[in-house]
Each structure stands twice: as structure tokens, then as C-alpha cells.
Design brief:
The chain is an alpha/beta fold and 342 residues long. It has helices at 11-22, 39-48, 62-72, 86-91, 93-114, 148-165, 200-208, 236-252, 272-283, 307-313, 321-334, and strands spanning 2-6, 26-31, 53-56, 76-79, 118-124, 170-177, 179-181, 215-218, 230-231, 233-235, 257-264, 270-271, 289-292. The radius of gyration is 19 Å and the shape is globular. The structure holds uridine-5'-diphosphate-4-deoxy-4-fluoro-alpha-D-galactose. Uridine-5'-diphosphate-4-deoxy-4-fluoro-alpha-D-galactose (UFG) binds next to helix 6, helix 7 and strand 8.
Length: 342
């Protein structure tokens, strides 16, 4: 069964391609390589022992996408392709709205035309802002987005809900990711941030590898046990497998108008200091860090209630924080400097 994986050369997309093949599906990557590298395809080929079909196309290009649907006749789509830099989204909002929402609408139109019902959408825990109750449940009220990027996820979910509510023949799940980290245990694929990483774990591994002088810990005056902010860090292979399970669930459901949002996290919160200590234990490296002021826009604590994923999809994260950091470090150590995009 062919499944289109838009953004399939990206961090979460590439790991999901592996999980799809392992589950017996045939992923077809669509990626414009605007924020991913072709070397990911080599890594995938080594892991899988065969190449994966890949089209270089922009999901906003309706003609190119129609052509791909025509050729591949996918049973559904896992839609990762989107811009994701929070800071850039604030400076260039139109670029983000055009790309992230335009591509979603284009895709939905083609899926409707071709009668392709199944869609998994990459959403984010950012839709919750700072929730009142933790762990946060899916029915917790969405908060005004802290960034344009976050708003594209919130509006994207609303578009999907409206499309399903209009009785169109769609079966859609939005997966609300918490903080994806780690890499494939082979060390052949992983995260490839461009320039200075925004996210904690790639910043940690690049610092330990000597590519950055020091990690800044953004704030130690939060109302948390050690004063640093708390997140729910999930191994990217667990997250990848959640997509496969969600897709299997959709494909098996008879309804023709279905929309669900589901949290994908571990259910456990870890503070920035806990991540640093866990990384030091996993890597045997002492990390150079200092405390700096809070980062604007950061929330204090958020972690997932994972009951819905367990109940409705039968999925639960299996890998530990230690395992995720071990795999992230293996990937960093194997990365050649010329491929590192630093
Ligand atoms: N942090 C540091 N130092 C760094 C980077 C991060 O202390 O150099 C801290 C942050 O302040 C935060 C925690 O580490 O407390 C996690 O930060 P990340 O940037 O890794 O992750 P966020 O929770 O901020 O990001 C998540 C998603 C993003 C999404 C964002 C929206 O991973 O994709 O929420 O707010 F854009």
C-alpha cells in the first residue's frame, strides 16, 4: 500500500519512512529539499537495504502533486512538509501562512478530487500554550498561539476539523507532537538542524561535540523542582511508530468523515537540567553550560496525557530519555563536518 510522505526527507519524516517499511507499507517521499538533504536518502537506503521512491516537489505545486497522485495512487498521506522555525515565522509570517496552510489546502483539494481519504497531520503541543492542568489532555482549550508557526498548526487543525465536519470523505488524525528527540539507533539518520539549533537536544550534542562553545540554559527561576522548564521528550522512533499505528487505525475505520487530535508524548516531564544530566550519563561527556535568562515565548511546563493514544490507537511510547539521548549522541558522533549544516 503506497503512502505519500510529504517532508519525508526531514527529521520526523525520514524516521517514519523506516517505520512504515518495517510495517509493510510502501512510503513515497515528496520533499522539496528546502530544509533537508539528499544524504538522508542514502541513510534510508542503508537502513532498509533498498531505495525509497522520492519525488522532488513543493506541496504547494498543485500540478506536480496531481501528477504524483496520478502515478502513485496512494492510500493516504502523512503530511510533514512545513516550515518550522519559530523565530523566522515571526519575521516572515506570510511565508509561513502561504507555505504551511497553502500546502495543506492544496493537498486536501487533490485528496478530495482523487478520493484519497486518509490523512495524518503533523500538529504540535504548541497549540496548548501553557495549559492549566498537567498532564494536558486533547480537550484542553487551545490557547492563542505564541508564534506564527504555532498559529499555522492551530489553524491547520481547524481547517481539517471543518473539512471533516462538512461531511467530506476524509479520515484525518492530527498528531500533536511533544518534543521529538533522538535518532535511528543505526546512527544513519537523525536531526540535521541548519545553523544554530533552536532546540535543546541538538544544541547539547553539538556543544558536546565541540561545535558550540557552551549551552545556555534558558531560565532557572521557573516554578519547577529544579527551576528549569519541563517538557515531554519523545524518541523520534516512538513518534514515527505512532504515525504508522495512526495510519493503520484510519485505514481500518469505516467512517468517511472522521477527525481526531491525539497527543504523542511519553506522559513524563523532564526538566532542562534532567536532560543535561541524562545526556552526561548517556554520553560520558561533561557538558559546558551556563544559566541565562528565560527565552521569550517559552512555557514553564508541558507534558502529555497519553491516555487517548493508548485507548484509541493502542500506541504507547516504549523508549526512555536515556535511550533517546544515547541515539542522538551516536548520530552526532557519526556526522561528518561537511554534512552537519552548522
Ligand atoms: N532550551 C535551553 N537552551 C537551548 C534550547 C532550549 O535551555 O539552547 C530549553 C527551552 O527553554 C525549553 C526546553 O529547552 O525549556 C526545550 O526547548 P526546545 O526549543 O527544544 O523545545 P520547545 O519546547 O521550545 O519547542 C517545541 C517544539 C517546537 C515548537 C515549539 C513551539 O519542539 O517545534 O515547541 O513553541 F516550535
Amino acid at each position: 500500500m503506497n503512502i505519500l510522505v510529504t517532508g519525508g526527507a526531514g527529521f520526523i519524516g525520514s524516521h517514519t519512512v523506516v517505520a512504515l517499511v518495517e510495517a509493510g507499507f510502501t512510503p513515497v517521499i515528496v520533499d522539496d529539499f528546502s530544509n533537508s538533504e539528499r544524504l538522508v536518502l542514502d541513510g534510508l537506503e542503508k537502513i532498509l537495504g533498498r531505495s525509497v521512491s522520492c519525488y522532488e516537489a513543493d506541496c504547494n505545486d498543485a500540478a506536480a502533486m496531481r501528477d504524483i497522485f496520478e502515478r502513485e495512487k496512494p492510500a493516504g498521506v502523512i503530511h510533514f512538509a512545513a516550515f518550522k522555525a519559530v523565530g523566522e515565522s515571526m519575521a516572515e509570517p506570510l511565508k509561513y501562512y502561504r507555505n504551511n496552510l497553502g500546502s495543506l489546502i492544496t493537498l486536501l483539494e487533490i485528496m478530495q478530487e482523487t478520493g484519497t481519504p486518509n490523512l495524518i497531520f503533523s500538529s504540535s503541543a504548541t497549540v496548548y500554550g501553557q495549559p492549566e492542568h498537567l498532564p494536558v489532555k486533547e480537550d484542553s482549550p487551545a490557547q492563542p498561539a505564541m508564534s506564527v508557526y504555532g498559529n499555522t498548526k492551530r489553524i491547520g487543525e481547524e481547517i481539517l476539523r471543518d473539512v471533516a465536519a462538512a461531511g467530506k470523505p476524509f479520515k484525518i488524525i492530527s498528531l500533536r507532537y511533544f518534543n521529538p528527540i533522538g535518532a535511528h539507533p543505526s546512527g544513519l539518520i537523525g536531526e540535521l538542524p541548519r545553523g544554530v539549533p533552536n532546540n535543546l537536544v541538538p544544541f547539547i550534542t553539538q556543544t558536546a561535540a565541540g561545535l558550540r562553545p557552551q549551552l545556555s540554559v534558558f531560565g532557572d527561576d521557573y516554578d519547577t523542582p529544579d527551576g528549569t522548564a519541563i517538557r515531554d521528550y519523545i524518541h523520534v522512533m516512538d513518534l514515527a511508530e505512532a504515525h504508522v499505528t495512526a495510519f493503520q487505525h484510519l485505514a481500518a475505520r469505516p467512517e468517511t468523515a472522521l477527525y481526531e487530535a491525539v497527543n504523542v508524548g511519553t506522559g513524563e516531564g523532564a526538566s532542562v537540567m534532567q536532560v543535561i544530566r541524562s545526556f552526561e550519563a548517556a554520553s560520558g561527556q561533561k557538558l559546558n553550560f551556563h544559566i541565562s535568562p528565560r527565552r521569550p515565548g517559552d512555557v514553564e511546563a508541558v507534558y502529555a496525557d497519553v491516555g487517548k493514544a493508548a485507548r484509541e490507537l493502542g500506541w504507547t511510547a516504549r523508549r526512555s530519555l536515556h535511550e533517546a539521548l544515547t541515539d542522538a549522541w551516536r548520530w552526532q558522533c557519526g556526522l561528518r563536518k561537511e554534512d552537519a549544516r552548522i
